[in-house]
Amino acid sequence: MSTGFEFEIKSRASRARAGVFNTPHGELSTPLFAPVGTQATVKSVTPAQLEELSAGLVLANTYHLYLRPGDEIIAQLGGLHSFMHWYRPILTDSGGFQVFSLADSRKIDSDGVTFKSHIDGSTHRITPEKSISIQENLGADIIMAFDECGSPYDVVKNEIALERTHAWVDRCLKAKTRSDQALFGIIQGGVYPELRKRSAEYLCGLDLPGYAIGGLSVGETKPETLSILELLDVCLPENKPRYLMGVGSPEDLVAGVQRGVDIFDCVLPTRLARHHTAITHTGRINIANARYVSEKSPIDDRCTCYTCRNFSTAYLRHLVLAKEILAATLLTIHNLNTLIKLMNDIRQSIIDARFDQFATNFFEHWDKIE
RNA sequence: GUGCCUAUGGUGUAGCGGCAACACAGAUGACUGUGGAUCAUCUAUCACGGGUUCGAAUCCCGUUAGGCACC
To answer: With b meaning 16 or more CB within 10 Å and e meaning fewer, what string describes A224-255?
Structure first.
């Protein structure tokens, strides 16, 4: 009988892979882009709209949902899928990253982290065991090990964070009781190849159902990011999905797939949508720009999303300047469609054995507007 | 018609003889395991014409345009 979390590679093109990952809430076709729904909602769009976009996986967040409304409340209400009315796969981040990026102050020790809520200043403590307990209450299909994300250029702190992250993943595994959730480990190590390699080797020894790459796109240079991905590509097992956390610009998605990454998530498309920037097949455009005041054509003439099928750029600009909520919704639909479509095109090109050509063509045309 | 008051960016205001400031609006950019937040940069020949002064948004005279009062 299957465990429910097999990863099957259907096709390869160089180091890129097209696969299928099985979860209790359905299959995920990879390479995959996952929209972020931190507070049990992908901001400004409904689950029905996400389905129409063919979104496969949605992220939610342990730190935020633990603080509000509380993981036990969500468990009482039947778990996250039912709570947010999204019955396709969900992944919850462990909360490690948010403790460091959002909490007003935090104190970390080998056992866990004590921090003050960014909402009301109240004091809380999260340990690996607590993070798993919260994530079991939430009930996502994929859950993440509690980790410490160091700053990319501090080798001493990175080594400490790495050892801590390794000790914590062991504790997460021990604390885990549900068999219908896959626990992914997170590789840390900043920009340091030795640390990254050590982290990958340690986690691979645990034979987890998937491996996440953390601590990238947090301030290091692009060549550094790519060389770490290339290093990890040869360290990680072929038959497990690789998840690059927090990365989601179109060029990064293509570059990531080229280096063997299967899953990505990122706030970028939804955040940019709320900040009046559209992602097109050739680059970003700022919808608020005065040049679009009477532009009749849609944002992207090649796009077939609901927004581009029905609305002029001039109308979207009007909504943006008038600060209407619909601006965020329509731009979010468009931006998510652009990334999801990009991943579908990448997947098809891998299956058709023409991914290298696809990538070359993509980089030739990317960011060449005007 | 007479008297008094006012005139500073797109809007509303500060500055009262020494580098024209603030808020909003506007423009441009940033945003990568989410604070619908935020941040950065830009946007004025101080109504017009003359005078006093080393120096005028500021003081004086006139013009124009508003406001108030009286008739």
So the answer is: bbbbbbebbbebbeeebbbbbbbbbbbebbbb
* Residue A99: partners with Cβ closer than 8 Å, 6 or more residues away: A63, A106, A113, A115, A126
Rounded Cα gap, residues A40 and A45, in angstroms: 12
Q: How far apart are CA A300 and CA A82, in angstroms?
A: 35
pLDDT of residue A103: 73
Q: Is residue A339 within 8 Å of A254, Cβ to Cβ?
A: no
Residue with CA nearest C1' of nucleotide B34: A267
Give residue A119's identity as a one-letter amino acid code.
I
**Residue in the structure block whose two tokens are 């040049």:** A291
Q: Is A233 a known active-site residue?
A: no
**Separation of A298 CA and B49 C1' (Å):** 53
* pLDDT the model gives residue A273: 96
* Per-residue DSSP letter, A41: S
Distance A291 CA to B48 C1' (A): 36
Give the integer Cα–Cα distance in Å for A237 and A84.
34
**Mean pLDDT per 10-residue segment, chain A (370 residues):** 82 97 98 97 97 97 95 97 98 90 84 90 93 98 94 89 96 98 97 96 98 93 94 97 96 97 97 96 93 95 96 95 94 97 98 97 75
Residue nearest to nucleotide B28 (CA to C1'): A289
Establish whether A93 is a catalytic residue: yes
Residue listed under structure tokens 């097999």: A6
Query: Which nt is closest to the CA of A277, judged by C1'?
Result: B31
Residue A352 CA and nucleotide B17 C1' are separated, in Å, by 80
Distance A345 CA to B14 C1' (A): 59
Which position among A71, A93, A147, A262 bears the catalytic label?
A93
In the structure encoding, which two tokens stand for residue A116, read together?
A: 């003050």
